[in-house]
Specification:
This protein is an alpha+beta fold and about 475 residues long. The chain has 15 helices and 15 strands. The radius of gyration is 21 Å and the shape is globular.
Length: about 475
């Protein structure tokens, strides 16, 4: 059996144990340590304290661009855009940068599935190949007939990338061995992967699976008769005034940074070695920078292909969690955080595109994402506070755990230092998302000539909404 030898299988499982430790550390006073000095003014009791923690993190790790959004009581109370540019000033114009959000895309796909189930198109316990009947001829394991939509949502369908690899990140050798095209199509990946045996009985256990969410995107298409991204925008995002989100492209396209109709997209940097890999869009030996062409973002659509601004992603999550213009009925909200039988008694589990942690104060929801050049983070605390953090740089592979730990530490400690949030709401109806956003400025120099990462502006973006 051929096992895909993916050179950078990017897993985005939520590390709840570490998060719990960090939360405890925050409560016990970790945030009270003496502030570091990086050329910025000293932290204040407001959001500037959080901004400075993020700035330090970016400076230490060489992160190029970042975006931060905080929601409290259903209101966007803070957003900030960060830039680390050395040679020239770069302005984002009147709108914030957009970022690949990697596996946070699974929350969007999960929401699409819950919406269709709520509308009676199918139930979460419907066998998935009753919906995708055209794929039945490709099934190579009779146990696949038992896979339900719920199994796919909760990573319990029988695929384990730790055993058999991840088909959304194939190498050139993988593609040649199975006779695929460059880049592989959804149809090719589905036909080949479904012909292989499962790694375990559906419903027996959890194993994070990008392929499962690739299948769920096809369920959306089969159920609606529309392309996955188009239907999601029309049914879920447009009603919330989210206009900038798209399925992204991993090929360098200058227009994606200059399109007048969309906010500019961040420039992605992967610091792992080697800095280049073979293009997945060519069967020749064409080297490309890893974030730009070594994988296909459109292939990854329902599992990790979306591009969002930080403020608009926060708008989506506020609705998903029912904190503003709830997306779902109470029954669907229950399904969002439901656990599988094998998770009974466990303090954390995977719901419908969200990770869930049971705390004494209530449920904590979250997700993390990573692709070459992309690191993303979302959490909703039991008190209804959401934090979205998007960054356009990833470290060397051996530094990933430390990078993730320090990112979570910066965010959680920074949050603990904020004593008061602005009395404002960036989700005001009747205004466009570009109406009140900050430009990105070049890095200022410290007194000793060093460059620092500086948050720019402080205006809160607004979103067109139908309230």
């Amino acid at each position: 059996m051929h096992v895909f030898r993916t050179p950078f299988i990017q897993r985005s499982g939520w590390r709840f144990a570490l998060l719990g430790v960090l939360l405890c550390a925050t409560v016990l006073g970790l945030g009270a340590q003496e502030p570091l000095r990086t050329g910025e003014s000293e932290p204040t009791s407001g959001p500037a304290a959080l901004d400075q923690r993020v700035s330090r993190f970016m400076l230490k790790w060489g992160v190029r661009d970042g975006s931060l959004a905080v929601v409290r009581d259903g209101k966007l109370v803070h957003t900030q855009h960060f830039s680390r540019r050395y040679r020239r000033a770069v302005s984002t114009g009147s709108a914030p940068l957009r970022f690949r959000i990697a596996s946070l895309s699974k929350s969007i796909t999960g929401a699409a599935i819950l919406k269709l189930a709520q509308d009676g198109v199918f139930t979460l316990d419907t066998p998935v190949f009753d919906v995708l009947g055209e794929l039945k001829p490709f099934l190579g394991d009779q146990r696949m007939a038992d896979i339900t939509i719920r199994h796919l949502l909760q990573h319990a369908a029988g695929w384990d990338s730790a055993i058999s690899g991840d088909p959304v990140f194939p190498t050139h050798e993988d593609i040649r061995e199975v006779g695929g095209s460059f880049p592989p199509t959804h149809e090719e990946v589905l036909a080949y992967w479904l012909s292989r045996p499962l790694d375990f009985q559906p419903g027996d256990r959890y194993a994070y699976s990008n392929f499962g969410y690739l299948l769920l995107a096809r369920v959306v298409e089969a159920a609606t008769g529309k392309p996955y991204g188009e239907w999601v925008r029309e049914a879920l995002l447009d009603p919330l005034g989210i206009s900038q989100a798209r399925i992204g492209s991993s090929v360098w396209q200058p227009q994606q940074h200059l399109d007048e109709c969309l906010a500019p997209e961040a420039i992605y940097v992967d610091l792992d070695r080697p800095r280049t890999r073979l293009s997945i869009f060519s069967d020749g030996m064409q080297p490309v920078l890893t974030p730009y062409g070594s994988f296909s973002l459109s292939l990854f659509d329902g599992a990790g292909g979306w591009v969002f601004s930080g403020a608009e992603l926060a708008r989506f999550y506020a609705s998903l969690a029912g904190d503003r213009d709830p997306m779902f009925s109470q029954e669907s909200m229950t399904q969002l955080v439901a656990r599988q039988a094998f998770d009974e008694g466990q303090p954390f589990w995977y719901g419908a595109g969200v990770n869930v942690l049971e705390t004494p104060d209530g449920l904590l929801l979250g997700h993390a994402g990573r692709l070459p050049g992309t690191a993303t983070w979302w959490v909703r605390f039991p008190d209804g506070t959401h934090v979205v953090a998007l960054f356009s740089t990833t470290p060397a592979q051996q530094e990933v755990d430390r990078f993730s730990t320090e990112l979570e530490e910066a965010l959680l400690v920074g949050l603990s230092e904020v004593e008061a949030w602005p009395d404002q709401d960036g989700f005001r109806p009747g205004e466009s998302a570009a109406a009140a956003t900050a430009d990105v400025a070049p890095l200022p120099a410290d007194a000793d000539g060093r460059r620092t990462v500086r948050p720019v502006g402080g205006a809160v973006p607004t979103l067109q909404g139908r309230h």
